């Protein structure tokens, strides 16, 4: 189970990294949106990984739970690093709390997990604007 979880995680991370490389570097909001869409598209393209990453891992025992916690923190660290980089360049405001990136990852995880389990909404890509509002809503205005 953990090996499949790690494989699915790498697939999602690779898709998000490719989206970040191809997104315009001067537009932090578009880079965030590109990452969101890459994440959701990877899950839509590989529903078997989505099931493992978001649902089955929860009940797979303490080792799997520990690995899940590590991965969620790694995703939060990436969100935080992207925000810090864009904030240093004056493109976007810096998160107010060091917990904001993890709150974003946790909310996204639960939204997408609900979609995988219940099919709500029917298409996981319909969550993109919700996730965008969630992320952008936690950002203060860029400092001038």
Question: In words, what does this structure look like?
Answer:
The chain is mostly helical. The model has no long low-confidence stretch (mean pLDDT 88). Helix content is 72%, strand content 0%. It is globular and about 45 Å long. The protein has a single domain, classed as Tetracycline Repressor, domain 2, CATH 1.10.357.
By CATH, the architecture is named Orthogonal Bundle
Q: How would you describe the shape? A: globular
Spans of at least 5 consecutive residues whose pLDDT stays below 50 are none
The N- and C-terminal alpha carbons lie at a distance of 48 Å
Number of domain units: 1
Radius of gyration: 15 Å
Give me the CATH superfamily: Tetracycline Repressor, domain 2
> Which range best describes the helical content: under 10%, 10-25%, 25-40%, 40-55%, 55-70% or over 70%?
over 70%
Strand content: under 5%
Structural class: mainly alpha
* Quantity of strands, as a count: 0
Characterize the main sheet: none
* Helix-strand pattern: HHHHHH
Concise synopsis of the structure shown:
72% of the residues lie in helices and 0% in strands. With 144 residues, the protein is an all-alpha fold.
Topology (SSEs and partners):
Elements: H1 2-22, H2 28-45, H3 47-54, H4 62-88, H5 100-118, H6 128-137
List keywords for this structure.
144 residues, Tetracycline Repressor, domain 2, 0% strand, globular
């Amino acid at each position: 189970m953990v090996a499949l979880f790690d494989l699915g995680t790498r697939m999602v991370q690779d898709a998000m990294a490719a989206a970040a490389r191809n997104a315009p570097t001067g537009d932090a909001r578009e880079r965030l949106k590109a990452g969101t869409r890459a994440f959701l598209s990877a899950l839509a393209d590989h529903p078997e990984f989505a099931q493992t990453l978001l649902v089955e891992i929860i009940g797979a025992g303490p080792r799997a739970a520990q690995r899940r916690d590590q991965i969620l923190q790694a995703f939060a660290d990436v969100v935080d690093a992207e925000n810090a980089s864009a904030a240093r360049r004056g493109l976007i405001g810096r998160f107010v709390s060091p917990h904001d990136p993890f709150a974003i990852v946790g909310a996204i995880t639960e939204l997408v997990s609900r979609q995988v389990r219940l099919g709500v909404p029917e298409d996981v890509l319909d969550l993109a604007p919700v996730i965008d509002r969630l992320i952008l809503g936690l950002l203060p205005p860029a400092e001038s």
